[in-house]
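Take one protein record:
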Amino acid sequence: MEKIKQSNPQNSQIEINEIVSKNDDIEGQNIVPEIEVVEVYDYSKRAQWLRAAVLGANDGLLSTAALMVGVGAVRQDVKTMVLAGLAGLVAGACSMAIGEFVSVYSQYDIEVAQMNRESRVDKSELEVKKKKLPNPLQAAAASAAAFTVGGLVPLVAAAFIKNYLVRVGMVVAAVSLALVGFGGLSAFLGRSPLVKSSLRVLIGGCLAMGITFGLTKLIGLTGLNS
């Protein structure tokens, strides 16, 4: 090597530069930058089920309770209140199921039609996308079940209490607690403010029951209930 350096120092310097350049390339290839992968969960995937469940439960609570309180404003016996609440529960559950089925099925048809218009989407990819769409039957069943669960709260609260004032107070208290619980659950699953969501649901429910009771009582005072 000494002879090469003495006889041709320029060539030797070129070889050294090439070796250094190759080493730099190898070192550059071996260095892998550390990338921190943060998994972000898409909470919008819960929106369809959360919306159906919360709406169903709230409607079951408010519709049944308001109907029972309203009827109780003019008919204070427990049998009349419970029968009115039971009729409202069955009718409301069927209504929620049918409405949710029609709504989700319409959305499903629109999404599928849009996919079919996209010429670049092949059949296999189209089937995969269809499976990701909300199921109308499942949405209808979830909505009806949630309505039933909510509607059972005021029925159970009033079924075994004979005193009228205690019965109405029990219904209002049970429904208020349930509204706070459903509002808190909705806020927890959707990662929204807990207190704000619970208060919003509670205030709306109390207003609904109060308005129904007041208007029914007013109509009853006119003699239409006789």
Summary: Confidence is low (pLDDT under 50) at residues 1-7, 24-28, 37-42. The radius of gyration is 33 Å.
